[in-house]
Design goal:
about 220 residues, alpha/beta
Length: about 220
């Protein structure tokens, strides 16, 4: 195996082999039967052999959670962590591409804090992953820009302190702090709503009818 390559096959034979139940039944009583059974002495081993590792029914599957900047990411993560704790499922964040459950196609919950249309096409609509559900959290655009303004005034994220040409060398955070509350909100809302509009345009390209949009909301 190539060094650093991600594992993409499920750990469970029930998931890795589509007809595992039929395979197990066909090998019952043969020399290969023990290869499909978990080790277990005494009664445990006999019980495993009797049921031939029947695959448990899937009740949840793979769940994807997606959010965007200042749309309620922490709320989404806490809700899905509660669901995961209740159902005994692993919860991983902050990107779908780093989620082991998604890569292995196993039951689990994967959260992406910056969901996008390309990611939806790759991980949700793609035939390879077969996610059972998508929980996509969105927020009223004006609330997003007000929340972004308040957050960007005090955040320590590096990009907020980088000089910007359109601000004559000022950083975004410095420009917000130098402006009045009214002007700062207008400045942030122009940036924030422009960013949100670009995402919506990606969801609704001119040549595609609204009924065919890949944007899924919950």
């Amino acid at each position: 195996m190539q060094a650093g390559a991600a594992k993409t096959a499920p750990n469970s034979l029930c998931r890795a082999v589509a007809n595992y139940g039929e395979l197990c039944a066909a090998l019952r009583g043969t020399a290969w039967e023990a290869d499909l059974l978990p080790p277990g002495p005494g009664a445990a081993g006999r019980a495993a052999k009797a049921r031939c590792l029947a695959c448990a029914p899937r009740t949840v599957g793979l769940v994807l959670g997606g959010s965007h900047h200042k749309t309620g990411t922490l709320l989404l993560e806490r809700l899905l962590q509660s669901v995961g704790a209740e159902l005994g499922l692993p919860v991983e964040k902050p990107h779908w591409e780093r989620c082991a459950s998604l890569q292995r196609r196993e039951d689990g919950i994967c959260v992406d804090e910056h969901a996008s249309v390309p990611k939806l096409h790759r991980f949700f609509f793609g035939a390879r992953y077969h996610a059972a559900a998508l929980v996509h959290i969105v927020r009223e655009p004006l609330e997003v820009c007000v929340s972004s303004y308040q957050y960007h005034l005090r955040s320590t994220e590096a990009w907020l302190r980088m000089p910007r040409k359109e601000l004559h060398g000022k950083s975004w955070q410095a420009a917000l702090k130098a402006a009045s509350t009214r002007d700062g909100l207008l400045l942030e809302c122009r940036r924030s709503i422009r960013d949100q509009a670009s995402r919506h345009r990606a969801c609704l390209p001119p040549s595609q009818p609204a009924s065919a949009t890949p944007c899924v909301h919950a």
